[in-house]
Amino acid sequence: MIKKIYIIGIGLIGGSFALELRKLFPKSKIIGIDNSENNLGKALELGIIDEKTIISQIKNPDIIIVSVPVKSIINLLPTILDCANNNTLIMDVGSTKNSICKIISDHPNRENFLATHPIAGTEFSGPTAAQEGLFKHKNIIVCDKDRTAKSKLQLGLKIFELMKMQISYMDSESHDKHIAYVSHLSHISSFMLGKTVMDEEKSEKNIFDMAGSGFESTVRLAKSSPEMWTDIIHDNKENIIKSLNDYIENLAKINCLIKNDRFEELESQLKSINYIKTILKGIN
Amino acid sequence: MIKKIYIIGIGLIGGSFALELRKLFPKSKIIGIDNSENNLGKALELGIIDEKTIISQIKNPDIIIVSVPVKSIINLLPTILDCANNNTLIMDVGSTKNSICKIISDHPNRENFLATHPIAGTEFSGPTAAQEGLFKHKNIIVCDKDRTAKSKLQLGLKIFELMKMQISYMDSESHDKHIAYVSHLSHISSFMLGKTVMDEEKSEKNIFDMAGSGFESTVRLAKSSPEMWTDIIHDNKENIIKSLNDYIENLAKINCLIKNDRFEELESQLKSINYIKTILKGIN
Question: B246 lies in which domain range?
């Protein structure tokens, strides 16, 4: 019987989790914890949480969702694991997984913990961005599942299934390596595209009238939270540097083709990249 | 009285123009010209055009829309302008404008021509992608308007207004300089992002399960037509090289910040790029 659910970090992801868990466990109490009194106030007002508290006041938790930025997860997770009793399931939802799993690797309550990464962000943040159905048909990556006690793992997976998520499994090191390419690099490329265009066009605001949905689509992620992304980049530094090196090299090579009028090679390269159509069909 | 409208290149843009012009001039005949018999067949089948013909058979045209790739516009436009009579309005819709305007600068029928760039593409192509309403509330850039005879300019502008487009004016050289940043660079960055990720992950297709809507959004433009984009890149070579140099420099700089653990500077840079939110609000 799930009676008390704690959500640490009541933003977009934490808030949306709270909404789902309320549907799944209508008799449970949902208690929010957040650095920001403003976030807590809004979450109470919107009915996302029933009460607010602080970490040192956590008592008899059945489920704890940790949805704060990666750096804070690393700082707080050992203390949060101290709060676990025999039945507690603690899950984080951070965008990196390796250093998070390392920091609690030898914690006596390691088995109460399930490392997850729901692929379901948007560029918006805060409890007002929280929404029911955010996770529906989205992927969630569960890392190092053999380090979680069977009963806790089963509870976690059942929740994700009821939320209609697609579950995949990975070790935390591979997660960070691959996510650098398929997510983190997109964010940095988008931020830098935004910067490049704004630097060039800053004195001529009306130029952006020329921009269409293509520009909007590629710079959408440049609206993301700088704090959160600085954290992620810091934490996944080595993998991101490698992906950025590869990206810069590809851009420099295509620039070289353009400079040298090698347009047939350029066209054949663009054609082979079109294969991305097939890949994207598999993405929600 | 508009009786005969010729659409040269009956793809996404040409086809969508045909659909709009049929609504505006229901009594006119719409005649399609295309290299591809397949496109012509589909356009006839879908009722986008009434007849097909070839350029040398153009007779008494009231309006001619030239919506073929940029290189073909440059090749064909002088011949097409030869077909103009006193009343003919000829418009192109190419993604670059400078070399197009140059090639017919001294043509005796220059005044029949209006250079335009509707900012309304999608990553799809062909007559089956054509749709009514594609241009509604979109921007159209009209270039070098003083080179067009007043009566033709007025007809063109009236058509765009009836299509509910937002019209802006620019000289063709400025158009190409700015569009390199706000459109062409987005496409190249997207193609190269697609390449970088596919090269890294090609042996592990399931990795793309990890990708979310962020990745999809940034690589969407990598689905675009390679032929069309090779043409555009070729034609706007110098401006694109400059924008790519700027972009690569910004990426190298941020990679340097990451390598040297200068995360405070990185965060402050991401924060200032967030200003893009304000800019994007103005884009449809």
Answer: 175-280
Determine whether the interchain pair B226/A168 forms a contact, defined as Cβ–Cβ distance below 8 Å.
Answer: no
Same structural domain for residues B186 and B240?
A: yes
**Cross-chain residue pair B212–A258, CB shorter than 8 Å:** no
Q: Which residues of B touch A168 (CB under 8 A)?
A: 206, 209-210
A179-190 burial: b if 16+ Cβ within 10 Å, else e: bbbbbbbbbbbb
Report yes or no for ipTM above 0.85: yes
Give yes or no: residues B199 and B90 share one domain.
no
Do residues B116 and B9 share a domain? yes
Same domain flag for A26 and A161:
yes
Contact criterion met (CB < 8 Å) for A217 and B221 = yes
Closest CA of chain A from B59, distance in Å: 35
Q: Could you tell me the two tokens for A257?
A: 């083709």
The pLDDT assigned to B284 comes to 46
Q: With CB atoms and an 8 Å threshold, state whether A182 touches B282.
A: no
Question: Quick one: closest CA in B to A223, which residue?
Answer: B274
B130-185 residue pLDDT tens: 999 999 999 999 999 999 999 999 999 999 999 999 999 999 999 999 999 999 99
What confidence tens digit (pLDDT) does each residue in A173-216 have?
999 999 999 999 999 999 999 999 999 987 666 677 788 888 88
The total domain count for chain A is 2
CATH number for position B158: 3.40.50.720
Give pTM, 2 decimals.
0.89
**Buried/exposed B12-41: b ≥16 CB within 10 Å, e otherwise:** bbbbbbbbbbbeebeebebbbbbeeeebbe
Considering only CB atoms, A270 lies closest to which of B229, B247, B266, namely B229
% of chain B exceeding 70 in pLDDT = 97
Of A137, A157, A93, A95, the C-alpha closest to A282 is: A137
Bridge-partner residues for A92, per DSSP?
A66, A115
- Whether A251 and B191 lie within 8 Å, measured CB to CB: no
Check CB contact under 8 Å for A198 and B276. yes
Claim to verify: residue B17 and residue B147 sit in the same structural domain? yes
The answer to whether the Cβ–Cβ distance between A214 and B183 falls below 8 Å is yes
Is the domain of B11 the same as that of B119?
A: yes
Q: Which residues of B touch A202 (CB under 8 A)?
A: none
Alpha carbons A273 and B154: distance in angstroms, whole number: 42
A121/A11 same-domain check? yes
Q: Which of A116, A141, A170 is the last residue before a domain boundary?
A: A170
Residues in chain A within 8 Å Cβ distance of B193: 185-186, 189, 247
Q: Domain ends where: A170, A192, A208?
A: A170
* Residue B107 shares a structural domain with residue B145: yes
Give me the residue from A200, A271, A279 closest to B246, CB to CB.
A200
pLDDT, tens digit, 9 for 90 and up, residues A244-274? 999 999 999 999 999 999 999 999 999 999 9
